[in-house]
Amino acid sequence: MQAFLIRRFWLLRQRLIPTASLVLVLPIIVFLTISIGMKNIIMETMGNISYEEWVYPGLIMLVNTIIITPIIFRDFYFLRLESQTLVTLSLSPLSKYQIVIYLIFSAIVEGVILSMISIFILLYLMEISIGILSLIYIIIAVSLFSLIIANTFTTLSLSTHRINHIFLGASIITLFIIYSSQLLIEFEFYPKSVIDIFKLLPTSMILNWYRSMVFQGEFNVNLFFIPLTIGMLWTFLNSILMKRVLKQ
User: Fold this and answer.
1) Is the pLDDT higher at 84 or at 160?
2) What does the pLDDT look like over 109-161, one tens digit per residue?
3) CB 108 within 8 A of CB 150
4) Is residue 127 part of a domain?
5) Angle at alpha carbon of residue 23, lines to 25 and 163, rounded to 5°
6) What was the pLDDT predicted at 243?
7) Rounded CA gap, 90 and 67, in Å?
8) Which range is least confidently modeled, 21-30, 83-92, 168-177, 201-210?
9) Rounded to whole angstroms, what are the CA distances from 106 to 15, 110, 206?
């Protein structure tokens, strides 16, 4: 695991300037294009919570999704087809499950660290404040959210050889997550039949877990452990998929 984290740090150093630019500019763009426009339409949620406070974790998850997506595609698509590094790595004594979980975990670590910068930038831009406990909760939620997103894009990366399929699939998945997981809009605006389905999504559960902790002070065990279990099982399934794709 240490070798994978060192590798991640080395790769980050190689693209430090573009990464730093993305991390600094992305939350500003998200704030200007989404937060400012939506808060003029939705002042408060159905639960009488300020829209900016309610949407804040959703914006962090959105930023995290954009940050972690290229990391996963580089590891499971480009390193598999372009440099063949993933093929060489798969011949090591490590099991396929270890390789997948180490790559995903190191990607999550990088994504969460970079997202923490956005956490503070958005707090400043949106003029809201959160306590230490809420900060810990948002870091946990981002980590859990990253686990689901990383596995989603790992599956996509291992399932196709065409880059246009990657871009199309990533765009559809990202849009679906935005509108099905309460990142920006409450479920109360959707038909009840749709709400019942969307509430079962792990990404939706994670946002509901964080908001229930912060706004209601309730720790919902199911909303936390179901996404965690799904993420770990999905990682195992991705290791099986990688083994089949690499024909080993």
Assistant:
1) 160
2) 989 999 999 889 988 888 888 889 999 999 999 999 999 999 999 999 888 88
3) yes
4) yes
5) 100
6) 83
7) 26
8) 83-92
9) 16, 6, 20
- End-to-end Cα separation, the chain, in angstroms: 22
Dihedrals φ, ψ of 156, to 5°?
Answer: -65, -45
Q: Which domain holds residue 217?
A: 16-245
Number of independent structural domains in the chain: 1
What are 44's strand-pairing partners?
50
* Residue 147 maps to a domain: yes
Exposed / middle / buried, residue 242 (Cβ in 10 Å: 0-12, 13-18, 19+): buried
Name the nearest CA neighbour of 4 among 66, 115, 69, 92. Answer: 92
The rounded distance, in Å, linking the Cα atoms of 219 and 140 is: 13
Whether residue 31 lies inside any domain: the answer is: yes
Are the C-beta atoms of 8 and 109 separated by less than 8 Å? yes
What's this model's pTM, rounded to 2 decimal places?
A: 0.89
